[in-house]
Design goal:
The structure holds two protein chains of two kinds. Chain A is an all-alpha fold. Chain A has one domain. Chain A has helices spanning 3-8, 12-17, 20-37, 42-45, 47-66, 72-101, 108-141. The longest helix of chain A is centred in the last third of the chain and has 34 residues, at 108-141. Chain B contains 22 helices and 27 strands. The longest helix of chain B has 51 residues, at 714-764. The A-B interface holds A 41-44, 47, 91, 94-95, 98-99, 101-105, 107-108, 111-113, 115-116 and B 479-483, 485-486, 499, 604, 607-615, 618, 622, 624-625, 627-628, 631.
């Protein structure tokens, strides 16, 4: 098996061992976390705390819930589904609410909201991927049973 | 039905019904061959080459379509149904040469009847049905173009039969043409459209003319091509082998069918589509190259009668609206409207004031601006009427009360500004641009009103006023909707807290030093400074570039309120006319207003900070986000400016202004802060040292001291203020008079209602259900409520009459003062 095979091909056994409910648990954790986060804007939370919560704590919790030892290609997909989607919804709702209050320039909202939603999604995916890798590293350091 | 034959010198003639060209003898063959030959060729092909064809012609009393049918040797019978004996008679006589005596053919049966009735009655089935009806000009004439009619045609056709239908122009009225095709298809028939050029039709402005071939079986252009190429006859006027090409329409043309409705008895839309071609094409964009024009509005008016044309609508608008607008004294109209504008929303008042400013500016505004105003005005009126109708249809159409039982809207007590309703609610806090309440005797209402009145003149009753002026009362409810913070503020134009930009206004005066008792001390060594208004805190309250606060009194007079002092200024002079007592009530009012607006700004700043915390980092590549950031910056700057203005404003003295000596306070009318019109006709002004000065039009004096020179400019200021006050009072008087008339009318209605309820109760018992507005309640309840309404009506009448009497008395005094001061 070549390196690329190891990286991107998904072993059947791994797929079987990671059941869909675990991904949905990750989704649930992320949805609740971002739901709480969405009550206030990043500025109101404080940028440092917001970034820690949005890009580290919530993705780590979600990633731990998703777990798995699959290859990167699978994890990216799983993390995107588990973390990126709530992040996108959170960003959309939060930004829409914030923009809705600013009424002096109708129409400029969507122009900005869509690109940043995509960017936040990508950031969330990267953050979730990093969280999963951390989880794998931690698992490797544990003595085998 | 009006029949007309127009004969020309070459013996050709044209036949008109109700002014519509039916045919011209020069080219009628094109029309009738186009209508008849394709249908008969197809029918012959489908029925078999030697089959006998039975034909029904609906309409076509001129016999010309009949002539074309009879040319086919396979035709064994033709039933012609026309409801007009006159037309058929013309066909039998005047048109005989043209129709080759078709009515004499033994195969022909003529029925003078309504086509609908004939089809209902007949049990015959036909190979070909020709619908040669006159194009309808009224919706009720279009029954023979409905889906139901075509369904009847279908049931009268043999399965292999063909129907040929006279349609309308696919070129001039495409929506109507494709509506017909859609209608035919909706009846269960297949339909093939044809378009032909008939010269006489084209010359009459009808454009290319259209027909429809319809059949229960599938019908394609290929069928038509085969059939006409195999025709047993030769056409006289059309190129028969090429006739199938008439069925070609572009995809764009055919797509029109997807946008049109079906013409059915429940929705007789055909005539409307014919009279208003292009209306389905959606709203035209008229905003691309500037402000919208009135043309788009005129085009939106539907044509509802066949004898109305678009040109007539435009000419009507030009003659009626144009002439009226040209003869209108818009400036005067606006002034009068503004006198009555107390109850209008603030935004509309501001728009009207902006229009007045435009009108009073030198030179005429650009023409596009007028279109823009008219568009806004009409749109606003339509919206208001629509919303009013949705919310309270009875009120919008003057049919009754707002949820009460009678035709009274006045008895709720809120229409006359007596404290509890919306008309007066906004004035309770004492708006600077207030309205009529402030023009009454200053002591009668705790309101500062217009002209910078503190409400404390005459009796020194400051304490209650001070306690009532709280910043929370002046926090604007509306959000920032104007775009002034996205450019106008940076251009140093004055702007209000809603983001509305105003015309620049500049004040010239010399730097000064204030003191509570010393008043204004001008620094003569300093040059006169030009100060631009940057913030419009209220209609007549401005914050200048340097933080000074201006209270405008009239076009020529204003107050500078700053550093703990108040100076009365004349627009033309850099020096103050007078220093005035720094009334704590005025200070408190100004402070409360500015602090209320700071609260609103803080809220808006917070919103923008929240928004930009999400997207601020995209400002570099997103112009809209960049504009949002600019807006935040401007808002923050303005907030700081108002803060500085409050600091610069300083504090007035804690002491209340001294009361007028003796009984002079009785009946005094406050003109502006520290200035009032006394009952003896003199003007009293309170100087910074707390001493009242009196001016009777000739002398300026303090009791017990010799007369002093009249301050320069004071007369000019009074001349500008008194007429303004007088006009506003006249508006009040008219309003009160109208209110009284309404109350009287309401009273009559209530008494009638009461008599009716009483009569019903006596006849049917107290529990008998009666209509009470939109409710049904017992007669006894209705009587009780009506009695309560009558009591309220009497109270309202008394109060209004009292107000009116008082205003009239004050108005007379103001008029006399105006005369005394030479206005």
């Amino acid at each position: 098996m070549t390196k690329s095979d190891r990286l991107f091909k998904q072993p059947v056994a791994t797929r079987a061992s990671l059941s869909p409910p675990r991904a949905w648990i990750g989704f649930l954790i992320a949805a609740v976390g971002y739901g709480i986060l969405a009550f206030r804007s990043p500025g109101a939370w404080g940028v440092g705390l917001w970034a820690t919560l949005a890009l580290l704590i919530i993705p780590i919790l979600g990633g731990l819930a998703i777990g798995g030892r699959g290859y990167i290609s699978w994890r990216i997909a799983a993390c995107f589904r588990g973390i990126g989607l709530p992040m996108a919804v959170y960003t959309l709702i939060g930004a829409f609410i914030a923009r809705h209050r600013v009424q002096s320039a109708p129409g400029s909202g969507m122009e900005a909201i869509l690109p940043i939603t995509i960017l936040y999604c990508l950031a969330a995916t990267v953050a979730a991927l990093a969280a999963n890798l951390l989880r794998d590293l931690a698992a490797k350091r544990q003595p085998s049973q | 039905m009006n029949l007309h034959i127009e004969t020309r010198s070459d013996d050709a003639f044209a036949f008109y019904i109700d002014g519509d060209l039916q045919f011209d003898s020069a080219d009628e063959a094109v029309y009738h061959e186009g209508l008849v030959l394709p249908a008969l060729c197809l029918a012959r092909q489908r029925a078999g080459e030697n089959a006998a064809l039975r034909i029904l012609i609906c309409g076509g009393g001129d016999g010309l379509a009949l002539r074309e049918c009879l040319r086919f040797p396979h035709v064994v019978s033709v039933d012609l149904v026309d409801y007009s004996p006159e037309v058929v008679q013309l066909g039998r006589t005047h048109f005989t040469a043209l129709n080759d005596g078709a009515f004499d053919d033994p195969r022909v049966s003529v029925h003078i009847a309504d086509a609908w009735d004939y089809l209902r009655r007949t049990t015959d089935r036909y190979d070909v049905i020709l619908c040669d009806f006159t194009v309808p000009r009224r919706p009720e004439d279009s029954q023979v173009f409905t889906r139901e009619w075509y369904a009847a045609v279908r049931s009268a056709l043999l399965p292999s039969g063909i129907a040929a239908l006279n349609a309308v122009s696919p070129q001039i009225t495409p929506e109507a043409f494709w509506c017909l095709r859609r209608t035919v298809r909706a009846s269960g028939l297949n339909a093939l459209p044809l378009a032909m050029c008939i010269p006489s039709f084209r010359d009459h402005g009808y454009g290319m003319w259209g027909f429809l071939l319809a059949a229960p079986q599938p019908l394609y252009r290929a069928h038509l091509r085969t059939a006409v190429n195999d025709a047993p006859i030769t056409a006289a006027a059309v190129d028969l082998p090429q006739l199938w090409r008439a069925a070609y329409f572009t995809r764009h043309e055919r797509l029109t069918e997807t946008r049109v409705p079906i013409h059915c008895q429940d929705d007789l839309c055909l005539v409307s589509l014919m009279l208003n071609p292009g209306k389905l094409s959606g709203a035209e964009s008229t905003h691309k190259d500037g402000p919208p024009s009135l043309d788009s509005l005129l085009r939106a008016i539907p044509i509802l009668h066949p004898y109305h044309t678009r040109l007539m609508v435009e000419e009507m608008a030009e003659q009626v609206a144009g002439a009226a607008i040209r003869s209108l004294d818009l400036q005067r109209l606006l002034n009068e409207l503004l006198l009555r504008a107390d109850r209008l929303p603030a935004e509309i008042r501001r728009e009207m004031e902006r229009l007045r400013t435009y009108l009073s500016a030198p030179g005429l505004p650009p023409l596009e601006r007028w279109g823009d105003w008219a568009q806004r005005l009409l749109a606003a009126l339509l919206l208001v009427l629509t919303l009013a109708n949705l919310i309270a249809p009875d009120n919008a159409f003057g049919k009754g009360s707002f949820g009460l039982g009678h035709a009274s809207v006045s008895r709720s007590g809120c229409s006359f500004g007596r404290g509890s309703g919306f008309a007066s609610g906004g004035r309770e806090g004492g708006s600077f641009g207030g309205g009529r309440s402030g023009f009454r005797s200053a002591g009668s209402r705790e309101s500062s009103g217009s002209f910078g009145r503190s409400g404390s003149f005459k009796n020194g009753a400051v304490s209650s006023h001070v306690s009532s002026a709280r910043a929370a009362d002046f926090v604007p409810d509306e959000p920032i909707v104007g775009r002034g913070f996205r450019g106008a503020y940076s251009r140093r134009e004055p702007i209000d807290v809603f983001g509305t930009a105003y015309s620049p206004r500049v004040f010239y005066y010399r730097p000064y030093v204030y003191g509570h008792t010393g008043g204004y001390v001008s620094n003569a060594s300093q040059p006169v400074q030009e100060q631009t208004a940057r913030f419009v805190a209220d209609d007549d309250l401005l914050v200048l570039e340097n933080g000074d606060i201006i209270v405008t009194l009239s076009d020529v007079a204003y107050l500078v309120v700053s550093s703990g002092g108040v100076a009365l200024m004349q627009q033309k002079s850099p020096e103050p006319v007078l220093s005035l007592f720094p009334d704590p009530g005025l200070y408190d009012n100004i402070r409360a207003r500015l602090q209320g607006q700071i609260t609103a700004l803080d809220k808006e700043i917070g919103y923008r900070q929240d928004w930009l915390s999400w997207v601020g980092w995209t400002a570099r590549f997103s112009p809209s986000v960049s504009a949002d950031a600019q807006e935040l910056q401007d808002l923050t700057d303005l907030r700081g400016r108002i803060d500085r203005a409050l600091t610069r404003l300083g504090d007035g003295p804690d002491a209340a202004p001294p009361a007028l000596p003796g009984n002079l306070a009785d009946g005094a009318i406050e003109l502006f802060v520290d200035c009032g019109l006394l009952s003896d006709g003199r003007i009293a002004l309170l100087s910074p040292d707390g001493v009242y000065h009196f001016f009777d039009g000739a002398t300026w004096s303090v009791p017990g001291q010799p007369a002093q020179p009249v301050p320069a400019g004071l007369v000019a200021i009074l001349k500008s203020i008194l007429p303004k006050l007088q006009k506003e009072m006249e508006g009040d008087i008219r309003e009160d008079t109208n209110d009284l008339a309404t109350l009287a009318s309401d009273r009559v209605d209530l008494q009638k209602d009461l008599a009716e309820y009483t009569s019903l109760a006596s006849q049917n018992g107290a529990s008998y259900e009666v209509d009470y507005g939109t409710d049904e309640i017992s007669a006894s309840d209705a009587i009780n409520r009506t009695n309560a309404d009558l009591t309220q009506n009497a109270q309202d009448t008394t109060d209004t009459q009292k107000d009116l009497d008082k205003t009239r008395g004050e108005w007379q005094r103001v008029v006399q003062a105006s005369l005394r001061f030479g206005t």
